[in-house]
Amino acid sequence: MSDNFTLLGPSASEAAGRSDILYLALVGFSTLIAGIFLGVIIWFCFRYRRNSPADRSNAPSHGGGLEAAWTIAPLLVFLGLFAWAAKYYAEMYRPPADATPVFVVGRQWMWKIEHGNGRREINELHVPIDTPVKLVMASQDVIHSFFVPAFRQKQDVVPGRYSILWFKANKEGVYHLLCAEYCGTDHASMIGRVMVMQPQDYARWLEEGTSQPGMAQRGFTLFREHGCAGCHSTGSTVHAPLLAGLLGRSVHLEDGSILVADETYVHDSIVEPQKQMVAGYAPIMPSFKGQLSEEDIMAIIEYIRASGDPHTEKQQP
Ligand code: CUA
């Protein structure tokens, strides 16, 4: 048994520890309350069995205090558990702003992973320890589910939209990566490994794979090749939003709502530009659905991220 083995299996992320305590508390309270009720039922069965000498006259009324107590006490316990779980869920739902993005594309039947500097891997994910990592995931075909039991993290990966999952690994080691959604003949072999490494080892590992251009560089090439710069640039005569510094910025939409631009927003704006129109712009952008692969779109997002602050717009990251 390794030192990271807990009652619920290997645990290698901050969330795993929190999730386990919550899970055990839920099971513990449920067992306790069910046990009390079971005990009382069994006791009544014996006490009031047929022909027993127990007093069967109508009990005097206690004004309902006892009934109120046994109703309200479990209610408070479970509302408390709900609040605890909701807080955990809300924190897991929102990745920290400084999380390192890693891109994942699921397909029948493998996980394709790309790191910001262009290092790619298949069915393996290398991550640094004690660092928030945000996975931006898309599917190329059917629904898959990215599951790392040691992180207590599972997230469906759905075609046509992004799924975000973030974690902070806290134990070095090698952990299972599974597909947890039946996705066809070889679903069972859609498995891999997650390697949690020291930050300096991770940095060295990243550098070993820098023969290809980085994602931002590839994104810049695509940005030019597909004519994006024709409208989205300072010199353009077409009135289109400038994209430098877009990620993390508030965007005012035509319907009056405001959203914070994230990877999902950029992705949707490329494949379905008319869906969320930016206030003050004409709906002239064509959809690039089918022209760009999920990996291409991810590269363009990295180009936009690398192009940084809108006031110091660079042509090349
Ligand atoms: Cu992919 Cu199951």
Automatic annotation (TrEMBL):
Protein's UniProt name: cytochrome-c oxidase
Example of a GO biological process term: ATP synthesis coupled electron transport
Main localization (coarse): membrane
GO cellular component, one term: membrane
EC number of this enzyme: 7.1.1.9
Residue span, Cytochrome c domain: 214-308
GO terms for MF: copper ion binding; cytochrome-c oxidase activity; heme binding; iron ion binding; oxidoreductase activity
Protein family membership: Belongs to the cytochrome c oxidase subunit 2 family.
